[in-house]
Amino acid sequence: MKPIIAVTMGDPAGIGPEIIVKSFSKGALYDTCKPLVVGDASTIQDSIDRLGIDLKVNVIDKVEDAVFNIESIDVFDLDNVDLDQLELGKVSAMAGKAAFESVVKAIELALANKVDATVTAPINKESINLAGHHYSGHTEIYADYTDTKKFAMLLVEKDLRVIHVTTHVALRQACDMIKKDRVIDVISLLHDACVQFGIEKPKIGVAGLNPHAGDGGLFGTEDDLEISPAVREAIALGFNVEGPVPPDTMFAKAVQGYYDGCVAMYHDQGHIPFKMIGFKWDNENKIMESVKGVNITLGLPIIRTSVDHGTAFEIAGQGIASEDALDLAIDYAIPMAKNRILKSRDN
User: Fold this and answer.
1) Sorted alphabetically, which NCBIfam families does this protein's record hold (predicted)?
2) Which of the four CATH numbers 3.40.50.10490, 3.40.718.10, 3.40.50.150, 3.90.25.10 does domain 149-299 have?
3) Each residue of 247-269: pLDDT tens digit?
């Protein structure tokens, strides 16, 4: 049972097309799934040429025409990039429009059950907004186009699994969004995801918002008024959860396996420890040698996993981008897709 995995092209001016070509050129990928690209065929061909890889592009306009052959890359062609106008490493409305359209098409294919899961390459938020699509990221696009109200971002690298109560909002706004019901919803989403990953009774740590988790109200009241009641209710519902835990100790324990999953209150609280273990910086050559870790949107009616790095405009077109994170994102999408296929058959 090989699920069909749709990989969005990402911003054509960034490293998305390059890491896709590198990932698809590995024979092992086709042993476990049926991958195809949703985006602009000429952009993928350009990346193949730049990398000097012996691959062809199989241009399709419906999934049924994909051949899923290691000698070619199936591209669901949206024909939305003019290579003569494209500037690698530059923000542009054209690139933003192309990236946005590839995401929307992948969502449409998944909702129509034409593909079993979607994996997203990095987009540039400024380019997408220049194109007139006012979203703060993939998560919000997916939620909007699937009409999903309760969703959250989960980051996974090795034994660290971090879900976020808030994500792409100003820090001042994030503090106002920390509410009991939202924290409970996120705990539930994380628990269900861990079970899907094979953890029967996951232990979950919930981070505090303020220093020392508020220290009894000395450093803010959100921990006592919103987070603590949420944890107590989650325990009453049967979840194995602790909190609010000061994040400076919670994540240190989590990376050693004490927690199966962690709830972060805002974007950087969860992203910083995650990237500390997943990203490897080469200081001598001033490049990111490796970027690992997977971003999974929970709560959707379809599957979406992603790399958790940006478009890396500074190295676009140089052939040095790492495909590690994309490989991992696809690896996570495959068992999730298989699990969903089996459940649909049972129903």
Assistant:
1) pdxA
2) 3.40.718.10
3) 999 999 999 999 999 999 999 99
For the chain, what are the domain ranges? 1-147+301-347, 149-299
Residue 258, beta-bridge partner list: none
Could you tell me if 313 and 127 are in contact, meaning their C-beta atoms sit under 8 angstroms apart?
no
With CA atoms as reference, report the closest residue to 40 among 88, 90, 92, 101: 101
Contact criterion met (CB below 8 Å) for 23 and 330: yes
Query: What is the distance between the terminal CA atoms of the chain, rounded to a whole angstrom?
Result: 18
Q: What is the pTM of this model?
A: 0.86
Q: Tokens 């999903």 sit at which residue?
A: 148
Question: Which long-range contacts link 270-274 to residues 24+ away (Cβ below 8 Å)?
Answer: 270/155, 270/162, 270/163, 270/164, 270/207, 271/155, 271/162, 271/308, 273/160, 273/162, 274/155, 274/157, 274/160, 274/162, 274/308
Q: What is the pLDDT of residues 73-93, one digit of tens each?
A: 999 999 999 999 999 999 999
d(CA 206, CA 263): 5
Strand pairing category for 304-307 and 294-298: antiparallel
